[in-house]
Amino acid sequence: MQQPLLIDQDLYLIDGFDMNIRKRTSIYVLAKEKLTLIGIGPSPSVPYVQRGLQKLGFHMEEVEYVILTHAHLDHAGGIGLFMQSCPNAKIICHPDAVQYLLQPRKVAAVTRAMYGDNFTDFFDPIRKVYEEDIITKQDGDELDIGIDCTLRFIETPGHMPHHLVIYDKETKRLFTGNSAGIRYEQLAQVGVDFVLPFTPANQFDPEAMKKSLEKLKQLPIKQLCYGHFGVTNEPEKALHQVSNWLDIFIDIGEQAFVRGDTYDDLMKQLQQKVTQDLLKQGIMANDDVYLLINLDLYLSSLGLIDYFQKIEQ
Ligand SMILES: [Zn+2]
């Protein structure tokens, strides 16, 4: 595995190799007085996180907090397995996420439906979490992890109703989970900042996501740290971009739903729009990044059609 990436003094990023893909899912290590992680990834990411912490010189006993932005398995599925190696750690999440952590089969059933035969490779084994290990945080709550580091929790429903982002008041850094979309590090490396909304099934709510993005735009932010993947120092531009694409996704998604299109049809329509945009920025339609983008667009198509089906009922 690679060395954890140094983002700033006392802040590292470990690549969780989610779905065996590089630069897909970020796990952040805040090396403060109280060693804190943000995100853990699915269970297959846990060995990467453990080895990453070892490379940074930490023992598992030193982990004090693991903060989960939301209960989807690609960010939280490995928590039960990880906690087995961290005797002193507490899990921090929104109160409404607790039910999913205690009964991961609830999320697993939906995830299995989305990922099919790949579920075992990408998410197993899913281990139990103990209620006494969980501390809950809601909108406006804070957590001190060091003399110069207080984290504030902000509710940002949309991607999932109980989604929390984490704001570091001193550095004005925001850990976005999935609230501010997916950033493609592969494109950033060739000079193209590109962020798409992530709208998977089955609790996506477009109006809530829009409001959450507006809420984030009110904050003084210097850096966005994405769950997928990496960081940007141009937060305004990135939030603006994801809002624009969200409007496009909702518009195309609604039209597809009205026509009775399949998920695949919708995915292709979104892909066409994205490809047109990226071509203008010099990214060819056969670029490897589409292996990742097309998967995300497929998952987002499921959530868009699911949403329009629900509101019609
Ligand atoms: Zn998610």
Q: How would you summarize this macromolecular structure in one to three sentences?
A:
The protein has helices at 46-55, 73-76, 79-83, 98-102, 105-115, 119-123, 185-188, 206-217, 235-259, 263-280, 289-312; strands at 5-8, 11-15, 26-30, 35-38, 63-67, 90-93, 134-136, 142-146, 149-155, 164-168, 173-177, 182-183, 195-196, 223-226, 230-232. It has 313 residues and is α/β, with parallel strands linked by helices.
Helices and strands in order, then pairings?
Elements: E1 5-8, E2 11-15, E3 26-30, E4 35-38, H1 46-55, E5 63-67, H2 73-76, H3 79-83, E6 90-93, H4 98-102, H5 105-115, H6 119-123, E7 134-136, E8 142-146, E9 149-155, E10 164-168, E11 173-177, E12 182-183, H7 185-188, E13 195-196, H8 206-217, E14 223-226, E15 230-232, H9 235-259, H10 263-280, H11 289-312
Parallel strand pairs: 4-5, 5-6, 6-7, 11-14
Antiparallel strand pairs: 1-2, 2-3, 3-4, 8-9, 9-10, 10-11, 12-13, 14-15
The chain binds zinc ion (ZN).
Zinc ion (ZN) binds at residues 70, 72, 75, 159-160, 178.
The percent range for helix content is 25-40%
Number of helices: 11
What's the CATH first level of the largest domain? Alpha Beta
CATH architecture of the largest domain: 4-Layer Sandwich
Strand line-up across the major sheet: 1-2-3-4-5-6-7
Low-confidence stretches: none
CATH topology of the largest domain: Metallo-beta-lactamase, Chain A
Q: Determine the strand fraction and express it as a percent band.
A: 15-25%
Bound chemical compounds: zinc ion
Distance between the termini: 48 Å
Instruction: Report Rg.
Output: 18 Å
Q: What is the makeup of the main sheet?
A: 7 strands, mixed
Q: Find the CATH superfamily of the largest domain.
A: Ribonuclease Z/Hydroxyacylglutathione hydrolase-like
The total tally of domains equals 2
Based on secondary structure, the structural category is: alpha/beta
Order of helices and strands: EEEEHEHHEHHHEEEEEEHEHEEHHH
Global geometry = globular
Number of strands: 15
Domain Metallo-beta-lactamase: 24-228
Organism: Cerasibacillus quisquiliarum
GO molecular function, one term: hydrolase activity
Protein name: MBL fold metallo-hydrolase
